[in-house]
Q: What sequence folds into this?
């Protein structure tokens, strides 16, 4: 895995801060790692002697396992931390928590945190490389990278392709990263959902806005269906799951009406029967499990390329 | 206290010396004579390049932290910070603990600041504890010396309470002040709602939240025919409403925080919590409307919106950081460094000395012989760095800290005292 090219940044805080060349480099590296992952021996020594701390201040299953697997496949030493079983509950600040862990000679930090910008704050005060594994409703760059990577695998280059993002854009941790990434790769992007779940100024980011699911399905080549973030809604943004499923959910009947196949994606975890029906999630046009598989390769690439910046 | 101020440009509209370079002799705290090339033996001199002198400045709303938050600021440090910023008077916001919500707290402020160079004018709380529920004993506080009534940085949400407050103060010709922001719409926000907040994934504070409440307050003002001050306007819509209300003859005044004039929401694109302010930094269009409001007289005063906070409340994740910045010591420098292309020293004096006193109905100090000296001496062209060792406030939460600035107050004179910067 020798590459001359390097990322333009020391951290991966968000897609916003990556160049198109960075994204291409991550994809190229991920392709090589994907090939490694399909070998009988899936482990490479690239990150031997590198210690990575996975700091999860918010619950996560797949992202955390995906990062941990990626780190182990690269032979990194891994320590895990979760807020629910930690000093955070005793009132320790983020900076103190992280500095304590770093003083044990940790090289890289993978962090999920509920506060937008938490990684920026950290990057101004610590020396380790940081990968953002989600900062609230701001960015989740590796998810957007694996999404775009999976899309390219399925449909080829994204230049000029139509990608619609359905659902709860307002509370999503992946919507913005997806928008930034897809726009950098030349795709046309539309967001579609109930008006209360779409930020008023989202069009300023260069996306179309629609509230009509049928019309948006007709418009797109790829449908990325987001999870309804029930746990993040402190006030009601729509009256009931029943009405949501009926008017904004993606069902097989809607897809059959199109008369042509479109690619179906979902970052998970799925609320089956709410934003997407089971027969759609499990259909042959769904690449939901490929997304998960690619997640490990993308995260290996991100870790590997950042380690090269040390 | 005796001093001879040498060749300072007098900026004092209405004074016969306005616009003239003058020497000013002060003896025993009184302006003894104003003239050219005054010579007096054995008296301390105050001189410098391109000095200006004006009636002493006043800030319309300072968080003094005292009582209750003395680790952020106390009455002494607030006075020191104010004096260093060129102010000879400050109106104190009631958001202390306990709040300035009865005669006792009003007298506490007045009695503990007696003898300071800076005059303290307490603003009494409109509601007990500034909690927005029960109206306070405003007549009693007025009698004790409160100059206005407001819940300070807490916008009064309850329509009926605002109505009764505006009615009640008419008993003594009192003034109600409110910093408009509807919390049902804006209460969850972290910054101005717009392109920047969207791209940062931060919940927004729509301009609408301020505009709806400003609209309500002006309606209530019209109905009650009372006196209202709208503090720290930040939106184009609210400025336009006040402009129209003034045209219709309503008894309303308005102020703006200097940070909202100098910066817009673009300053937050790197999640710098030092720019996390209330009212939030808004769009460039709002900023332009505020500028127009200052120029055409819709906005009567420019405030430092001084909110001292300890490091622990600012040096943290943006979402968890508190709103606010200190500002007394750099207000003038912000005007000269960031706004000098349109904000003249004459206009600064209008918005820092004359407007604030008009809002509260206080007499304006005059630059005239025989008058008590209540004066600010300042150097528009002076270059300086706002470094940590210069800070007089107990708090350091200013985005201007360690920045190179232009324009600095040189000295303030009031109550028979002189303090040099």
A:
């Amino acid at each position: 895995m020798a590459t001359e090219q390097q990322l333009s940044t020391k951290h991966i805080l968000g897609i916003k801060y990556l160049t198109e060349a960075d994204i291409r480099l991550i994809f190229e590296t991920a392709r090589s790692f994907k090939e490694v992952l399909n070998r009988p021996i899936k482990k490479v020594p690239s990150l031997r002697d590198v210690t990575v701390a996975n700091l999860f201040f918010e619950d996560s299953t797949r992202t955390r396992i995906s990062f941990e697997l990626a780190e182990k496949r690269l032979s990194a030493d891994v320590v895990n931390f979760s807020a629910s079983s930690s000093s955070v509950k005793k009132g320790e600040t983020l900076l103190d928590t992280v500095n304590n862990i770093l003083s044990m000679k940790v090289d890289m930090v993978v962090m999920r945190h509920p506060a937008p910008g938490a990684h920026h704050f950290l990057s101004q005060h610590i020396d380790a490389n940081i990968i953002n594994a989600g900062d609230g409703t701001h960015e989740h760059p590796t998810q957007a990278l694996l999404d775009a990577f999976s899309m390219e695998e399925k449909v080829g280059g994204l230049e000029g392709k139509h990608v619609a993002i359905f659902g709860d854009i307002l509370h999503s941790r992946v919507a913005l990263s997806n928008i930034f990434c897809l726009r950098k790769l030349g795709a046309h992007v539309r967001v579609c959902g109930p008006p209360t779940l779409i930020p008023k100024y989202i069009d300023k980011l260069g996306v179309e806005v629609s509230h009509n699911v049928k019309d948006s399905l007709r418009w797109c080549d790829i449908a990325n269906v987001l999870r309804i973030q029930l746990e993040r809604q402190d006030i009601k943004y729509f009256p009931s799951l029943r009405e949501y499923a009926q008017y904004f959910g993606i069902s097989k009947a809607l897809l059959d009406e199109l008369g042509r196949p479109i690619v179906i994606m979902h970052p998970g975890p799925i609320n089956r029967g709410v934003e997407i029906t089971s027969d759609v999630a499990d259909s042959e046009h769904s690449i939901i499990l490929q997304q998960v598989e690619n997640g490990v390769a993308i995260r290996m690439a991100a870790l590997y390329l950042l380690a090269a910046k040390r | 206290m005796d001093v001879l101020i040498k060749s300072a440009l007098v900026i004092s509209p209405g004074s016969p010396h306005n616009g003239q370079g003058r020497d000013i002799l002060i003896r025993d705290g009184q302006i003894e004579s104003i003239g050219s090339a005054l010579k007096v033996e054995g008296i301390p001199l105050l001189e410098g390049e391109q000095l200006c002198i004006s009636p002493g400045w006043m800030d319309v709303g300072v968080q003094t932290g005292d009582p209750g938050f003395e680790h952020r600021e106390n009455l002494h440090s607030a006075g020191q910070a104010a004096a260093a910023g060129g102010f000879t008077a400050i109106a104190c916001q009631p958001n202390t603990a306990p709040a300035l919500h009865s005669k006792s707290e009003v007298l506490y402020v007045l009695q503990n600041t007696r003898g300071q160079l800076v005059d303290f004018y307490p603003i009494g709380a409109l509601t007990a504890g500034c909690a927005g529920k029960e109206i306070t004993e405003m007549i009693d506080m007025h009698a004790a010396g409160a100059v206005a009534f407001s819940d300070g940085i807490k916008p009064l949400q309850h329509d009926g309470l605002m109505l009764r407050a505006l009615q009640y103060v008419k008993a003594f010709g009192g003034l109600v002040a409110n910093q408009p922001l509807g919390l049902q719409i804006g209460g969850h926000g972290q910054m101005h709602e717009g392109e920047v907040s969207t791209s940062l994934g931060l919940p927004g504070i729509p301009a609408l939240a301020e505009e709806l409440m400003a609209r309500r307050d002006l309606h209530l003002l019209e109905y009650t025919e009372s006196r209202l001050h709208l503090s720290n306007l930040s939106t184009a819509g609210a400025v336009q409403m006040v402009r129209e209300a003034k045209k219709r003859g309503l008894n309303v005044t308005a102020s703006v925080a200097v940070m909202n004039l100098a910066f817009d929401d673009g300053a937050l694109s790197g999640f710098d919590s030092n720019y996390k302010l209330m009212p939030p930094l808004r769009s460039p269009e709002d900023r332009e409307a505020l500028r127009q409001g200052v120029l055409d007289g819709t906005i009567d005063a420019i405030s430092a919106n001084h909110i001292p906070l300890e490091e622990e409340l600012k040096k943290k994740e943006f979402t968890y950081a508190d709103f606010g910045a200190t500002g007394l010591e750099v207000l003038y420098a912000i005007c000269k460094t960031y706004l000098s292309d349109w904000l003249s020293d004459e206009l600064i004096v209008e918005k820092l000395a004359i407007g604030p006193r008009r809002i509260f109905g206080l007499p304006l100090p005059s630059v005239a012989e025989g008058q008590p000296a209540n004066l600010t001496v300042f150097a528009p062209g002076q270059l300086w760095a706002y470094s940590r060792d210069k800070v007089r406030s107990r708090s350091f939460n200013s985005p201007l800290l360690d920045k190179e600035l232009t324009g600095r107050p040189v000295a303030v004179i009031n109550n028979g005292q002189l303090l040099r910067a």
Notes: Chain B has 13 helices and 18 strands. Chain B has two domains: 3-52+369-420, 56-360.
